[in-house]
Specification:
The chain has 284 residues and is α+β, with helices and mostly antiparallel strands. The protein folds into three domains: 3-83, DNA Primase, Chain A (Alpha-Beta Complex); 103-170, no CATH class; 176-280, 3-Layer(aba) Sandwich (Dna Topoisomerase Vi A Subunit, Chain: A, domain 2). Helices cover 32% and strands 24% of the residues. The chain has helices at 3-9, 12-18, 65-73, 77-83, 85-102, 117-125, 194-204, 226-229, 243-255, 274-280; strands at 25-26, 30-33, 45-48, 53-56, 61-63, 106-112, 136-142, 145-153, 159-162, 167-170, 176-178, 187-191, 212-215, 234-238, 260-263. The strands form three sheets. A five-stranded antiparallel beta sheet has the order 1-2-3-4-5. The longest helix has 18 residues, at 85-102. It is globular and about 70 Å long.
Length: 284
């Protein structure tokens, strides 16, 4: 999630409650709270639960969930985002549960090697066609309609589906752990999505690597691999250069600070992710 998504999707009431702040009076859509920055007898902070914003009639200052945390903790935007991390993962999990409900009525009709011209072109446009053997062409039926896309399976048998117009998961959401051929490694490379993993495999052809690979398929899945990561001496992070990627990076760096945690996003710091950077290089 970026800053705008955090402001929109994290509930302002939940954030206020995290600081033990309760409304003095309220109705279904709005409420009045005591001011965040001073003591008062008559509440002047108006909170609009529909717009997910607050306004202080005493100072004329407007608040969103990020600036509320900044005010309460007297901290920077990045520190406020770190505080809101727990709410970010909660929102993502909620959305994934809703997505799963929408996808109950699906059926995988065919799994084969990539053959469809549109999918071949899509892989080429992302400069990962050389890694086509690592993905599959999936023909599926969803809510009574037939579709096809590039499929990447996770550890629970669910499949991430991508094409030019779609980004969904069929089945149970989970991470994908890929062990190296020797099945023994002290290093693991972590990616948010499988296109970054395919990109890395393109780059890896130029050097030898004995790393294991972890594709989160969603940063909300990080909780599932916390114990797994303890087994590695080195953790290389290839996360997105956005607010959510920063939150995940900070969590891993703090939780495994006794290990060698390398932030590889510096390689593509002016781009959203590894694949976008790779696609920008004309000589690669």
């Amino acid at each position: 999630m970026n800053c705008e998504e955090v402001k929109e999707k994290i509930n302002i009431r939940t954030v206020l409650e995290s600081f033990n702040l309760s409304p003095v009076k309220e109705n279904r859509k709005t409420a009045f709270y005591f001011a965040l920055d001073r003591e008062e007898k008559i509440p002047s902070l108006s909170v609009d639960f529909v717009k997910n914003k607050a306004f202080d009639f005493g100072t004329g200052k407007s608040y969103d969930v990020i600036s509320i945390v900044q005010q309460m903790n007297q901290c920077s935007v990045s520190e406020a985002l770190k505080y809101l991390e727990k709410f970010v993962f909660s929102v993502q999990k909620k959305f994934q549960n809703e997505e799963a409900k929408l996808q109950k009525e699906y059926k995988i009709l065919n799994v084969r090697e990539i053959q469809h011209p549109a999918l071949i072109q899509y892989l080429k446009s992302r400069k990962v066609y050389e890694q086509k053997e690592l993905v599959k062409e999936i023909e599926y039926e969803l809510n009574g309609k037939k579709y096809f896309g590039i499929g990447f399976f996770n550890n629970s048998g669910g499949v991430e589906i991508r094409n030019k117009y779609s980004k969904i998961c069929l089945g149970k959401k989970d991470v994908t752990l890929i062990k190296n051929e020797l099945n023994i490694s002290n290093e693991i490379c972590i990616f948010e999505g499988f296109f970054d993993y395919l990109t890395y495999k393109n780059l890896e052809q130029k050097e030898n690597s004995n790393s294991d690979y972890l594709i989160l398929n969603s940063t909300a899945m990080l909780f599932k691999v916390e114990e797994l990561l303890r087994k590695y001496q080195k953790i290389s992070l290839f996360l997105d250069n956005d607010d959510n990627g920063e939150l995940v990076k900070s969590k891993i760096q703090n939780q495994y600070k006794y290990k060698n945690v390398e932030d590889c996003s510096l390689i593509y710091q002016k781009f959203k992710d590894l694949n976008e950077w790779f696609c920008s290089k004309e000589d690669l």
